[in-house]
Structure formats: structure tokens, C-alpha cells
Design goal:
The protein is mostly helical. Helices cover about 45% and strands about 5% of the residues. The chain contains 7 helices and 2 strands. It has a two-stranded antiparallel ribbon with strand order 1-2. The model has no long low-confidence stretch (mean pLDDT about 95).
Length: about 180
């Protein structure tokens, strides 16, 4: 009862990463929790607004278990990302959001991973804003001279979590990162 939808999605990613079978019911639970606009919420309900991070993990889990990029779930998720992409090419956690809608490294990084999992090019034309900014450029703009990433431009200090989340995205890698 204390588990969240995110824990479920991460479990599916973990099983996929070690090449273990994933029950069809686990995949169905993910698909059934997708909201009308294409995103997923952290608790998997329609009562909570969708967010970019949970959506990214759901997309990667579905892709890792064989969902086609042309399938309904991933197509709707990509439309969700296009609908809330910022002018600088990046993403906020949510839009609208009580926390603001500025691009953050964490959300942009996992969104990039979702794009990669869905066979998209995060530096390509489909993910270039009207202002000519790409998702990858938005993330790279948050990298500090130290090599670490800032969480947001307004909070320019090195941020460990932002850096850890940015590295696979900059490398063009989606989860699961298979190690066996």
C-alpha cells in the first residue's frame, strides 16, 4: 500500500534490466494509468496531474518490455511532451505547476531518455522549439564549468541529483542500462 506507481514502473525497468520476465499485468497497469493527454502521474491516478518524470520512466519501461514507438501509449506520451516543451527546448516537472514551469535538468534529462527509448532524436527537428532550441541543448545549457549540472538556471549551483540524472541523457542512453 505504501508503494507508488513510480515504484511499480521502476520495478519493471529493473526486471527488464536484468532480463527477467515482466508479467503482462504489470505492463497493463502502466498502460491503464496513462492519462488522457498522454502523461502519467507519480501515483498513477487521474486525480494527480501528469508529470514529465513519471512519464519518462513509464515510457522507458514500456519500450523496454517491447511496446512499439508507433503504439498508442508511446505516441500519446510523445504528444504530451511536445505539448509542454519549453521555448528553450527543455521541460519542467509539470505544466502548470505550483513549483513553476522553468526547465530543470532532472526533468529534461529523463524526458530525453524517454525520447531515446521511443526511438526519437532529442537534438532533432521534432524536438526543436520554435525558437530553434533542442532538448539536448537545453540540458547542456545547465552544465556548469565544473562539469556538474545545475537544477535550474535560476539555481546555478552544482546539483548532485541533476548531474546523476543528466549523464545517461547526455550519453544518449535510456533505461534500463543493461549490465549483464
Amino acid at each position: 500500500d505504501a508503494d507508488t506507481f513510480v515504484a511499480h514502473v521502476l520495478s519493471v525497468l529493473a526486471l527488464s534490466g536484468v532480463q527477467r520476465p515482466v508479467a503482462p499485468a504489470a505492463i497493463d497497469l502502466i498502460k491503464n494509468a496513462q492519462q488522457e493527454e498522454g502523461g502519467w502521474s507519480w501515483d498513477g491516478t487521474d486525480a494527480t496531474p501528469a508529470d514529465t518524470n513519471t512519464t519518462a520512466f513509464a515510457v522507458q519501461a514500456l519500450a523496454a518490455t517491447g511496446e512499439l514507438a508507433s503504439g498508442e501509449a508511446l505516441t500519446k506520451a510523445l504528444a504530451y511532451y511536445q505539448s509542454i516543451q519549453n521555448a528553450d527546448g527543455g521541460w519542467p516537472y509539470q505544466n502548470p505547476s505550483q513549483y513553476g514551469t522553468d526547465t530543470d535538468a532532472n526533468s529534461t534529462a529523463v524526458a530525453i531518455q524517454a525520447l531515446v527509448a521511443a526511438g526519437q532524436d532529442p537534438a532533432g527537428a521534432d524536438w526543436t522549439s520554435a525558437e530553434g532550441k533542442t532538448a539536448l541543448a537545453a540540458l547542456e545549457a545547465l552544465q556548469n564549468d565544473s562539469g556538474a549540472f545545475a537544477w535550474q538556471a535560476a539555481m546555478p549551483d552544482d546539483n548532485l541529483l541533476a548531474t546523476v540524472q543528466a549523464l545517461p541523457a547526455v550519453a544518449g542512453k535510456a533505461f534500463p542500462l543493461v549490465t549483464i
